[in-house]
Amino acid sequence: MNKRLSPYGFREGFRDGVPIGLGYFSVSFGFGILAAGAGLFTLENLLISMTSLTSAGQVAGVKVMEGVLQAGAVTAATVVEMLLAQLVINLRYALMGVALTQRLDEDMTVGRRLFYGFFITDEIFAVSSAKPHPVGPRYFSGLVLTPYIGWALGTLLGAVAGNVLPLSVTNALGLALYAMFIAIILPPMQKEKGVLPCVLAAAALSCVFAFVPVFSFLSGGFAIIISAVAAAVVMSIVHPVPEKEVEG
Predict the structure, then answer these.
(1) Structure confidence by residue, pLDDT tens digits, 116-167
(2) Which residue, 20, 154, 184, 236, could crosslink 28 as a Cys pair with Cβ 3.0–4.6 Å?
(3) Three-class SS string for 15-51?
(4) How open is the CA angle 245-246-247, to the nearest 5 degrees?
């Protein structure tokens, strides 16, 4: 690990985080509408975004919660479903955190790593990893501030709007969340030939679980888990990523 002090301060981190925060605001607005439509209260929606900061994980979690609200009870299977869904969807953040440890300066103590690790998202990881010099706590404080506020505030306003706007309007605004998912997969799709087949396979499996009557017993959370894992396993065999040679 590089022990040098970071040349980047709070101001530069804040400047880099503003575009991310603006994007998160618009996307989380769609999540707030989605969660409100699932029957969650506005405060519950806000707390989810303030304690999770994971778009796909939150959507999957809301689907599980919606099933609980419809059933009127929480079962052991529901808890397992929630845990597995979050593990599968958010495991990448652990890998990002490990990779990012090689980009930190000596001021980033263990306690600070644990704290700032909560705020790691795809975009924050990409921006901080692209810096040519090590990054430290001052830079991270500025970088994560706007995205965190944007994600929470967008969720709050979306939840409020979801309770007052007509259904036709909320359905249209809710499409922003799914547009974000499409935007996430487009860049790697252009670089790796196995990404598109993997996405299509997962989507096809999801459709099977949703529309074939024999799978009606399967909840939405478990359908997501099975679709994602099965597609990833198959494509890792059919289109394996070649190991890059390590230069000496």
Answers:
(1) 999 999 889 888 888 888 899 999 999 999 999 999 999 999 999 888 877 6
(2) 154
(3) HHHHHHHHHHHHHHHHHHHHHHHCCCCHHHHHHHHHH
(4) 110
The pair phi, psi for residue 104, each rounded to 5°, is -100, 150
Decide: 10 and 136 in contact? Cβ < 8 Å.
no
Q: How many angstroms separate the Cα of 206 from the Cα of each of 53, 87, 230?
A: 24, 18, 11
- CA max distance for the chain: 62
Q: Which of 215, 155, 164, 186 is nearest to 32 (CA)?
A: 155
Tokens of 192: 């790796």
What CA–CA distance (Å, rounded) separates 31 from 159? 8
Per-residue confidence (pLDDT) for residue 247, from 0 to 100:
38
Exposure class string for 222-244: b at 16+ Cβ within 10 A, else e: bbbbbbbeebeebbeeeeeeeee
What is the predicted pLDDT for the residue at 2?
A: 46
Name residue 135's beta-bridge partners. 104
Q: What is the pLDDT of residue 168?
A: 66
One-letter identity of residue 106: E
Three-state secondary structure call for residue 159: helix
Q: Is 168 helix (H, G, I), strand (E, B) or coil?
A: helix
Stretches where the chain sits below pLDDT 50 are 1-2, 245-248
Distance between CA atoms of residues 208 and 227, nearest Å: 10
Closest among 9, 21, 35, 13 to 158, alpha carbons compared: 35
pTM of the predicted protein model: 0.74
- Orientation of helix 10-37 relative to helix 55-71, angle to 10°: 30
